[in-house]
UniProtKB/TrEMBL annotation:
This is PaREP1 domain containing protein. The lineage of its organism: Archaea, Thermoproteota, Thermoprotei, Thermoproteales, Thermoproteaceae. Pfam families: PaREP1. It comes from Pyrobaculum calidifontis (strain DSM 21063 / JCM 11548 / VA1).
Length: 180
């Protein structure tokens, strides 16, 4: 049996897109915990980052019309619709988070900032001088990886009534919560 997470993503214009990205977030978050358990902190940081990026994609899709209403120019509306939802470019994650804050997701910029710090940690590892990474030790990074994974689970619970929540979503959610 092929898992939904292994199938190609639906087109960003599809109603199932947010649902697929939420399932992706749950699976990536669980992988982050698995890597943490095995002592692979940098890999866990990457998975936690990917999980949060998938949550952002789901939020952007679910709130697209409200976000487009905030856009000042047609070009910005088009970019949101054609690029932001589909790719969630790492370089634009903070500005996209600010837009989500404007439509009611107050805490999203802070969690996005944490995810970006973990992304840096993934590439640079622990850094006692904190020049390349915000985390001096693996233990510090592990604490924040776990924190971000908990938030991914909270968002999944919060959004499940707004997406096509399948048996696969429920199993992934229960498995993740069971490991937290």
């Amino acid at each position: 049996m092929e898992l939904a997470i292994e199938r190609p993503l639906p087109k960003p214009t599809s109603a199932d897109y947010a649902s697929a990205r939420l399932l992706e977030a749950l699976v990536e978050a669980r992988l982050a915990l698995d890597f943490l358990r095995r002592g692979l902190t940098r890999n866990a940081a990457g998975k936690a980052f990917q999980a949060w990026k998938a949550v952002l994609a789901a939020l952007l899709k679910l709130e697209l019309e409200r976000l487009k209403a905030l856009a000042k120019a047609e070009e910005e509306k088009r970019w949101l619709e054609e690029r932001a939802v589909a790719r969630v470019p790492t370089t634009k994650m903070l500005s996209l988070s600010q837009l989500l804050k404007e439509v009611g997701y107050r805490e999203v910029p802070a969690w996005t900032s944490l995810a970006l710090d973990l992304h840096d940690y993934q590439y640079h590892g622990p850094d006692p001088d904190m020049a390349l990474s915000k985390y001096r030790t693996r233990e510090e990074a592990a604490y924040f990886i776990r924190s971000l994974v908990e938030v991914v689970a909270e968002y999944a619970e919060r959004l499940k009534s707004r997406v096509a929540w399948t048996k696969e979503h429920e199993e992934a959610y229960k498995a993740l919560v069971g490991e937290l």
